[in-house]
Amino acid sequence: MSLIYEMLKPDFLLHHAVWGSIVVGFVCPLVGVYFVLRRLVFWGVALPQVSASGIAFAFMLQGLGLNFLAGNESQEKHLAIVGALIFTVGTILVLAALERRGAGLSEGRIGALYALAWAASILFVAWNAAGETEMLGLLKGEIVSISEADFHAMLDIFGAVTACMFLFQREFTLVSYDRDMAVTLGRNVLVWDVLLYLIIGVTISLGVMTVGPLVIFGFLVIPPLAALPWARGMASLSILSSLLGGLSAFAGFYLSFTRDLPLGPVVIGIACGVYALSSTARLIVPKSLC
Amino acid sequence: MKKAASEPLIRFKNASLGYGKAPVLTKVDLDIAPGSFWGILGHNGSGKTTILKTMLGLIPCLRGELAEHGGLFGKPRFGYVPQKERLDPLYPLTSRAVTAMGTYRKLDLLQRLRGAGHDDIVNRCLADCGATHLAERRLSDLSGGQKQRVLIARALAAEPEILVLDEPLAGIDITTQHALLKLLKDLKDQHSLTILMVSHRVSAEKGLFTDVAWVDEGRVTTGPSTAMFASGKISEVFKSEL
User: Fold this and answer.
1) Looking at this predicted complex, what is its ipTM?
2) Nearest to A226 by CA among A278, A286, A281
3) What are B's interface residues with A at a Cβ cutoff of 8 A?
């Protein structure tokens, strides 16, 4: 117990890492709920990888001597976030436009995008003349070296994302569940869709910088899937998913720290364990009690 | 400006309707008068839903005139009941939450921050549709007829002038069909509604229609229901059901 208390204290050596992981664990499922309900789970696989390729691209530009934004280490990270944001939001908007038009095979598109994003990440790293090790660390998600100011800015942004997800939950649910009804009620479906996609883009971009693409995919999809059988509405689905994500992150960090294991796989393993438990319990517990 | 009593809520005049640039229906002339009960009939794929989507503003009128009159900035307020299969059962929504969606037009941000809702409207609409006992159950767990009642309650929560129903009786047993039709008749009288109902078949609902639009081979033929059902074409197609 005392170690858990120590880990949460501000003077803990990995204070940013532990709180960053927990916050990402709480926030990502809030947007991931819409990936699951809109049956866009594969977006959750591809977009974090696209975000990672955006980070790699930004670092490659710096490696090639195009230091138009970056100077010190902190600015390099800002540029990486900008790269991740542009790649992620741009990709979401293109994917959404194609979905609306109903053109082509959606799964095929996402599969190709995922492969391309992986390939691009590797190529951008290979072309980067400087700092390959540090960049690989960032691609995996390293929050240890983040400055205090940037850490608090990240918390503020995730706080704003959480507020938006709850404040506009009715609109996001309406346009996701029944677009035609939303139009007949005079709602601007496109505006609400774009707002949701922007929030998703920001969350994924910041999240990938914090814990890496693999963990972000896990946080986006697994907690909502585990929470879904037990939810009695959108608010309960969001809160339950968020709690499962945050607790998985903390438990993962604890295990990783005490057993000297890599953080990402441990977190994903715990989240999947929770999902398996939830699915098993759902089979056992009578439907009338859910 | 108050509309004249005889002024139609919706008027299509020589309109072409369809998706993209390709019209599915041409030369559509249709006047939806207040208080009427329209049956929009035709085969599967004939273009019935195209008329409905154009009215609701989901797709644009390609050519010709679409004039609307009503209480929502000059347009009629619609209550829309989609085909129940279109709504994804994955969403963990109770009947109350689904019905409340009908009120989302009215909620502003300040009201929401104060935690204010429209519980009274939701409760009343569920009660009007005989669905109060279903309020806390998941929509996806309900039978076809029960779902339809909740979706009608949701449409009513929008306080509509026109209730638009897309194949509301599809996949529902005869007894439930009769109960739903009685419900629609009662609601029409109680709320002074204009009703449009799309159907690819005709059975018990025939007696409720005041007017019929027959959609076939890219054309729409309209008229009073008695005259339309007496004409050869509809009788021939629906002879087993009439």
Assistant:
1) 0.85
2) A278
3) 53, 56-58, 72, 78-80, 82, 86-88, 90-94, 97, 101-102, 104-105, 107, 109, 112, 138, 141, 154, 158
